[in-house]
Every structure is written in structure tokens, then in C-alpha cells.
Amino acid sequence: MAKQQTRSWIGLALALLVVAHTAALAITAAAQPAGTTASTTSNNQAAAASLKCFEAIRVENDEIERPPAVTGHSLIALSHALWMYGGIIHWENGEKVEYGHVLWTYETDDNTWDRTFADKGPAQPLRVNETVDVQYGDSWLVARVVEPKRPDHTVRVVVDVPTKPLDLVVARSKIRYYPPAMNMHVAVGTTTSTGVPVMYIHGGKGQKGRVSSDLWMFVFERAAWVRVLPKTSEPAAREMHAGIVIDRGLFIYGGVRGQTNFEDMWHFSFKDSTWTELQPAPGPRPPPGWGHRLALTTHETRGRQTIWMFGGYNQTTGINELWSLDWATRQWTLHGLNGLAFTRGAESLFDPTSDALDPDRGAAAVETTADEASVAERLTSAEEDDGLPAGWWYRRPSRDMAWPAARKGHSMTLFEGNLIVFGGHGRVDFYDDVWVYRIADGVWIGPIPCASAPPPRNYHATAVLADSLFIFGGNNVQGLLKDFWRLNLKKIASFAQIQ
User: Residue span of the signal peptide, if any (predicted)?
Assistant: First the structure.
């Protein structure tokens, strides 16, 4: 036995030496099926270092108008085009400019951006201080409504120009209608029951810090905005929440307004125009927070739908917890290392009367043969240095397991059974890392050291077309960003599968 162990150690040392000094052999080995030896692990790391995940997208023609530096905006994919909406006020050439109301279109076929001006849309009641486009001669100006309904069926608006505000009285037919400038809102793309592509946006923060609870719909074919008036009470105004389309409606969770962190979840029915507050099943649930991200999975055969949520912040604490919500039962589950679940504080993962993990206590469906006493010895309080959720107990796995740091304002994308996380902002740092969570076996892979990664950022906007994740803008310590990138999801997913 001793001779066999000696030969194994010698073989392992030789393998590591080959990896260190022979790049060609490392690349060849990385292409082979993953094993458990140290040499295979090193070769996979070498392959990752040369993995060209990102590609910068540049518009070569300087005469083509393109979006400015922006953050807190949204990006929706439709056919071969991307639609970008919203964003915060920023400075350009020494002047304060508001781009939040502009809808931009990117055509992937010819690599061009274009501004889309909304049609006047159906007749709707205007409100004081709403933002509209007003026809003034041959031009369209951005204006603010002062008197929405005058006796002669005209509308009085004010155009805020640098020199002197322009006070106008115009016919309703000369007004184009759209939401007030918003950032940190929720935006989703879907189709109506008749197959018409639309985009919904909800909430966000607008001018003068106003946080909204409004719901708007943009009809792409008509380039028209419609304010959706719900038939029921609606969620409290909020920003930095997350949303996803499910069950012919819009699901939203969490968010923040001032010092209030939300942990409620709502569903808006597109068909009935009604909001419903959803109550979770008894058991553990995510903490209040904002800046988190959602993704949706559907079981291939049973059709069971699951909403996944990662990250966020709650005023004082960053969150790196991964939760899933069973849509049918409304049951939240917290996912831990190797699929094991966490539990808060000193609560046990285990049924005190048996040696099995207790699902009613939020534990994963994993059994153990250890009695409670020996299990308690193997439980360790998660410290901040571990990069694991503080205040949670967990079972240490037999080997070290990577785990993404707590963050907010990141992106999370579902692709081929993987949750792919990019960027975000922690307590101090901005991130440019890529992480993959393999849903099938509950394992995090990362960070994947992609070559030529974009600068770190948070609150960027992303959308998926085919096997590419398009990334635009965001912000970091340098300020607002206007760079444009493509992440090859196929390469990321393929690499994660061999780890």
C-alpha cells in the first residue's frame, strides 16, 4: 500500500510539473473529461485563463447616434434587436441632461443604435408634472405638463431650456406620451394574448427623487406607451426591486423606498389588470432587500416552475444567499454548498427526534446517518471571512467550495441549466467576475477568469439573444459607463460543465 501511495504522489508531482511548464499539454488535458486528480484541476484552470468570454462591441461610425453613459437602465431583447430604456440624470459637456425617458434600439444585424420616439398613443388623462414630447414646428421637445386639461381641450406645458423656460399651450394631438424618466425600475418583455410584443416597466425612481408604483406598457409595433391602470390596490412605490414574467403576469419581489426594505411579493395579471399580493408557505424566506436578481426555470417534463433569486442588500448587510421559490407551493428554499441548505442562528437543520434533515426547518432533501450530537460538532458558524452568509449555520463539505461574494446590482442569467452571475457591487468593491451555479447538482463554479473582461461595474443592463449576453453601461468608481459588451454564454456553460 505504501509503495502505491508513493507512486501516486510521484505521478501527481510530475503531472503538476508538466502543467507548469508545458502549455500545449495543459490545453490538451483540459479538453479531456474532468477527473479528480490535481493535474486535471490545474489544466482546467489553465484553460479558463485563456477563455475568451467577452467581446467589446464598438460602433465604428462616429456619425451614428448612440446612448450616453448611463446606469439603472433596462435592456429587453426582441427578435434581432435590443431595446434600452431609462437611466439616471448625468452631466455631459457641462450641462445637466436627462436621458431617462429615451428608448434606444440596437440592431444586431448592422451594429447601429437609434432613438425611438413614442407615438402619441391612445387618449389618456395626463397628470401634472408628467413628461411628454411636444411638437414645436418641425421638432419634438421634451416638456413638463402644467395644465393637463384646459376648457378648450388644449394642454399647457413647459419646456425647460437652459436660457428661459418655454411656456406652450398645445393641442392634445401634438403630444407624444411616455412614462416619467425612471431608473432602477423593473422591465420585462412579453407578448399579449394575441401575440403582440410588448414591454412592461414598473416602479423606479424619477425626477426629484420621486419613487413610483406606476405600471406602463410599451407596444413595439405602434411605438406607443400606455399607462396601465390596475383594477385593484397596487404594491407600495419602490425601486431596485426585481421582476420576472410568469403565469401570464409580472412577478416582483423586494425593493426599497427610503429606509424601508421590502420583502413582499406581488403578481400582476396581464389579462385581468389586477395586482395580487402572494403569501409564502410557512418556513424560511429571504430577508428584506434590494439590488437582487431573478431567473426562471421550468421543468422539462413536469412543467414545474421555479424562481431563483441571488444577492442583494438591506441597508447594512450585503447578501450572497441563493433562494428558490416553488411557484406552485409558494415555498422558499435556501440553497447552500453542494445543495445543502442553511438555517439561521442556532436553529438546527435536523429533526431533534431523528437523524434526518427536517424539510419543515428549511433543510435540503439530503439524508445523513450521523446522530444529532456528531452533526452538531460538524456544524460551523459562517464567518464573514468565509464569504458565506453571516449568521447562518452550514455543514462544511469534504473539500473547499467556491462561493460568490455578497453583491447588489449584478446580473443573473439562466442558460442551459446554469445561473450565470456577472459583476455587481459589494460592501466596498465593484466586481467584474463571472460565476456559474449548476442547478442540477447545486455547485458554484468560479470565479471564471475570462480573458479581457470588462471593467468592474454594477447596475448595468443585460439581455440575452441566442447564446450571447449583451451588457451595456453601469457605474463604478470612475463614474457612469457607456461601453457595450457581449458575453459568450455557450463558452461559460461548456467550461462549467467539465469542472
Answer: 1-24
